[in-house]
Each structure stands twice: as C-alpha cells, then as structure tokens.
Design goal:
Strand content: 15-25%
Helix content: 40-55%
Largest sheet: 5 strands, mixed
Shape: elongated
CATH topology of the largest domain: Beta Polymerase, domain 2
Strand order of the largest sheet: 4-8-5-6-7
Distance between the termini: 23 Å
Radius of gyration: 18 Å
Length: about 200
Amino acid sequence: MIDALFGSKTRVKLLHLFLNNPGKSFYVREITRLIGEQINSVRRELSNMLDAGVLLSNTNDNKLYYEINRSYIHYKPLKEIFTNNDVSKQKPKRFSKQSASSETDDWRIALAALPKAKIVIAAGALVRGSASKVDLLIVGNVESKRVADVVNKIEIKVGRQLTFSRMLYDEFYYRLSVHDRFINDILSSRHEVVVDSENILQR
C-alpha cells in the first residue's frame, strides 16, 4: 500500500491535500477537518514534513498556516503521484438545492437532506451515459437505516434496484488520495455530485 511507502495514512492524506492545492495555505484545525484525521497525528506529520522541507509555514492572525513548498527537490514527482490528473478533468453536473425542481429533482433533494452526509455521488443507472457499476456513493457518518430508506424510495421512483455504497469520510478521503480503483471508476465515469460539503471533489 502507498501508506507503507510514505510512512502513514495521515501523511498520504496531507500530501494529497497540499499537492492538489499549490499556493494555498491551511491551518491545523482546517486540515484536520478536511482530511478526517486526529489533530495530534496531523500536527506530528506536519512537523515532520516541515522539517523535511516538503512544507512551508507562516503565521497570520495568530494561526500557523502550512502550504506545499513548490521549490522542494521532489515536488514534481510527488505532484505526479498525488494530483487528481484524469479524475479532476471530469466536469460532473453539480446539484444545486437553490435551482432544484420538486418534480424532477425529488430524489436529489432527498439525498441532499441526509443528515451527516458529506459527499453524495450519483452515477450508473441514475446518470445517463455513465459506465459506473455503482449507482450511488454516500460518504459520511449516515445511519444505514436512513440510507436504506432513501435508496428504497429512489428505487421505486426509477423502477429498478440500485447498487449503492456507503463509507465513512476518513476512508473515502484516503481512497481518493491513493487513487483507489473503486473511487476512480466512479469519478472517471459520467457522474453527478449531489453533495460535497467540503468541496473536496473540486480540489
């Protein structure tokens, strides 16, 4: 696994975050929220990466900010490994509750209303032209019963059984970071982003 090569799962997630956001700085609690890791682990890895010259830091408004060091000797090869090259070129439709229609978007509205859902992606049978084998990916600490209830209502609406996957945000972000095949297959197919609370899929 890639975390064995780079030292830890937290470090892999940090590299993914910083290398997909060159020129942008983040403070510790913001980073912790974005990658879904414990603050002590994040601080330890940030310190290690700072010492190694991978990151730069600066203080603003009494907060310590970190960003990728684009002059780091191994910046280019790391960027090749961790940036979302092919996936980021996909321009999926993004659902907006403000412009939603209660008649045509009722299933999207139901998905967007799922408590604690941080990311919801529709693909497969729900998106015309999608080659994905998965119809719904729901990310977050969402109760399985709530997911099952919503999926059941959508199945009745579309008249077919759906294939869906539910996972925690921590797992999703890690699998996105290492270009996991399951995640890449969904994102490289035609898909629609129904929920992306942290705008992770735009990075």
